[in-house]
Structures are given as structure tokens and as C-alpha cells.
């Protein structure tokens, strides 16, 4: 398998963590977003959206969204299960990753920064928006896992929720978000980082 990835991309890191957890072999093709390589004709022939990640399977299937990639990985490499062993667990995981992936992620990325610049917004606008989105999203995620006693978000084994969490906490720190109000999330982070798959794969 090949993964078109950018080192600092949260969505790419999710896939790198997931494949590491599953012990799947992966060749990384670096796409430098800061240099605009994702906008090239060559890369758009792989992913017309011009985003990372893009997973190219051994039989030529191209999958371009991290949650879709996660579903494929669970089907192809059944252990560990990342999207939940039970329906109840699965829906909680999907709820969690949707908060991070749909509500927070689009408001902290390079595309929004460029769009704001093009619209003539003040330089600080992007950071203000990103910090607000991250703070609100993490507050929701903290609520979703509050009161739990498991090592990870929803069980004693890592799931997609944990995979979405770790890169997001990195982004929170990058934007200067105070994490002291999210103690359960920070505790889960420590459990994750005890596993090699989560340590900057």
C-alpha cells in the first residue's frame, strides 16, 4: 500500500497511526502541502480534491478520506478493530470522530488560512477561529468521554476515537489552547503515547 501524506497533516497522521496499530506495511509518499504539491496536476490525478491523505491499495483502489480509509482498514485487517466491536461503541466512536473531523478540523487547516488571506481578513483571524473551534470541539469530546474509566476513549483498547484525538491535541498545543480543562482527554493521551504506534508514526 502507498499513502500520499504530509508530515504535519492531522488526517494523514490518523492513517499512519491506524496502519501502525494494525501492523500493516505502508509506503509513504510525501506531498508537501506548504509548497502546494497537492495542487499539481500529477497529484490531482490521484485525488481530484487536492487533499491528503490518499491511500492507494495494492489492487489500485484509491481512498481519500481518513474515515473511509479506517473502514477499509478494519475490513482488510480485522485486528485490532478501530470502529468498535459493538453497535453502541461504534456510534460513540463515530460521534467523537465527527466532532473532531467535521466540526474542528476544517477550521484549523491550511485551506482556511489561505482563504482568509485571499479574502483580506486580518492576519490574526485564522488563529482566533482555530482556537475557538478547537476549544469548543475538545469541550464536546471531553463531555463524550467524561466519567469513563477505560484506558482509552471508549474501551481498554485504542479505537478511531483515540486516533482522531492525538493529532488534535497536538494542534491544540500548536495554537496555544489551554488543555487543563480537558483532564480526561489528556489522560487518554498518555495511554495512547505509551504505544509505539501513536508516537509520531
From TrEMBL:
<protein>
    <submittedName>
        <fullName>Maleylacetoacetate isomerase</fullName>
        <ecNumber>5.2.1.2</ecNumber>
    </submittedName>
</protein>
<dbReference type="GO" id="GO:0005737">
    <property type="term" value="C:cytoplasm"/>
</dbReference>
<dbReference type="GO" id="GO:0006749">
    <property type="term" value="P:glutathione metabolic process"/>
</dbReference>
<dbReference type="InterPro" id="IPR005955">
    <property type="entry name" value="GST_Zeta"/>
</dbReference>
<dbReference type="Pfam" id="PF13409">
    <property type="entry name" value="GST_N_2"/>
</dbReference>
<dbReference type="InterPro" id="IPR004045">
    <property type="entry name" value="Glutathione_S-Trfase_N"/>
</dbReference>
<keyword id="KW-0413">Isomerase</keyword>
<dbReference type="InterPro" id="IPR010987">
    <property type="entry name" value="Glutathione-S-Trfase_C-like"/>
</dbReference>
<dbReference type="GO" id="GO:0006559">
    <property type="term" value="P:L-phenylalanine catabolic process"/>
</dbReference>
<dbReference type="InterPro" id="IPR040079">
    <property type="entry name" value="Glutathione_S-Trfase"/>
</dbReference>
<dbReference type="GO" id="GO:0016034">
    <property type="term" value="F:maleylacetoacetate isomerase activity"/>
</dbReference>
<dbReference type="InterPro" id="IPR036249">
    <property type="entry name" value="Thioredoxin-like_sf"/>
</dbReference>
<feature type="domain" description="GST C-terminal">
    <location>
        <begin position="86"/>
        <end position="201"/>
    </location>
</feature>
<dbReference type="InterPro" id="IPR036282">
    <property type="entry name" value="Glutathione-S-Trfase_C_sf"/>
</dbReference>
<dbReference type="GO" id="GO:0004364">
    <property type="term" value="F:glutathione transferase activity"/>
</dbReference>
<feature type="domain" description="GST N-terminal">
    <location>
        <begin position="1"/>
        <end position="81"/>
    </location>
</feature>
<comment type="similarity">
    <text>Belongs to the GST superfamily. Zeta family.</text>
</comment>
